[in-house]
Design brief:
Layout: H1 3-7, H2 11-24, H3 52-58, H4 64-86, H5 96-117
Length: 118
């Protein structure tokens, strides 16, 4: 994705980007995030960090407090969901979309609090 494409995303998608990068970060060794490496902004390219989360924070697309909340809590909650779901028979197992809906609903409810605190 290009920076302008990220800017055009709704908050729910931005939160998922932050979640994906937060979940992956402990295992990243050679890249910073979904964009892999920073771009300096030469030859007409817009400068950007290697992690979309940094771009989202720097551009103010989500409040910093909301981003930090996702980084601090969501990866562990997702892992707990996956562990619990693995214990259920495959035919009855809830889809990951159920957790994502729960994740977005909770953050939508908290978004006003994050904006007020900013």
């Amino acid at each position: 994705m290009k920076p302008d494409e990220v800017r055009s995303l709704p908050p729910a998608y931005l939160r998922l980007i932050v979640l994906i990068e937060a979940r992956a970060k402990p295992r990243l060794r050679t890249v910073e995030g979904l964009w892999r490496s920073p771009i300096a902004g030469k030859r007409g390219n817009e400068p950007r960090p290697g992690a979309m989360t940094d771009f989202i924070r720097d551009a103010g697309l989500l409040p910093a407090a909301e981003i930090e909340h996702i980084i601090r809590t969501a990866p562990f909650e997702l892992l707990s969901f996956q562990v619990a779901a693995a214990r259920v028979d495959l035919a009855e197992r809830p889809p990951i979309s159920a957790w994502i809906e729960h994740f977005n609903a909770g953050l939508d409810a908290m978004a006003d609090d994050f904006r007020l605190a900013a």
